Amino acid sequence: xxxxxxxxxxxxxxxxxxxxxxxxxxxxxxxxxxxxxxxxxxxxxxxxxxxxxxxxxxxxxxxxxxxxxxxxxxxxxxxxxxxxxxxxxxxxxxxxxxxxxxxxxxxxxxxxxxxxxxxxxxxxxxxxxxxxxxxxxxxxxxxxxxxxxxxxxxxxxxxxxxxxxxxxxxxxxxxxxxxxxxxxxxxxxxxxxxxxxxxxxxxxxxxxxxxxxxxxxxxxxxxxxxxxxxxxxxxxxxxxxxxxxxxxxxxxxxxxxxxxxxxxxxxxxxxxxxxxxxxxxxxxxxxxxxxxxxxxxxxxxxxxxxxxxxxxxxxxxxxxxxxxxxxxxxxxxxxxxxxxxxxxxxxxxxxxxxxxxxxxxxxxxxxx
Length: 368
Prior knowledge:
The protein has helices spanning 34-43, 53-65, 71-82, 88-113, 124-134, 139-166, 172-198, 207-234, 237-241, 243-267, 270-273, 279-282, 288-293, 299-303, 313-325, 328-350, 354-364; strands at residues 117-118, 121-122. By secondary structure, it is mainly α. The protein has 2 domains: 32-169, Farnesyl Diphosphate Synthase; 173-368, Farnesyl Diphosphate Synthase.
């Protein structure tokens, strides 16, 4: 990451995505989580830590940042190179900050959704709850400790991501523009997450509202931020002129990404997704799956379990069958595909590089 996080610059490893550039042009640098994870572990050494509380938080964050799909930093790097960027060290620092922003949101999301497993491993909450229990805390105190750790770890990651952007080796106007964009993206994502959390299951959940929530909670930081931030970092008039189209494309692809994630959150295999596939229903989330189901004969079955805190895999099985039998999964897939098609149309019309559009569509199908 930038010197504010890692204390060292990145090298540019060999590319794994040569198809993202025209023949004869340099390939986008590859992104991995190695330097970010090492930087997070190093953060535990910067301050006195009586009791080891900082160490446990930074170590949990490092684990949370390790093993993700890397969709967001890879997209930022690919966009940066596709638009003519050449400073791979700075692009890598911004890519690390982007993944750290995602890590912050993931950790907070696990608090909000009461999830104990992420990427097949205990979440920050579950990890610190177990630690508290091992030290003699009762169940209630351990639950409080776990929730506090999740909130605090997410806050640390969020502040560190912003600090990393502020420390980039760029001119003052570019830094200011990046920070303003980042502030807007964080605010929009927070509003979308709150809308998702506070939406009450009703007799007729609204699909348009569910799609707007998906755009705000996911598209803004997963696609709009990497695309627009890369354009700002490149800084040429041509790159900045593409910003409106990149934002529109990012929002369309981002909604498709969230729609597919909603499907994984209902129909996925926890062994593959690495997280619970009943939590959306158990928490009463009005996802696109739920909103589409409300228009079908599957709705009575869905409504009977939506928001049920005791819902488990066994009781969720007939709900999934009803959703499949009444075409809900296919309908949501079609919604996602339609948005990807629209994104390609908008991007081509504006002159967004074709390989970048292909990567965007692939990214919309990736695991979170």
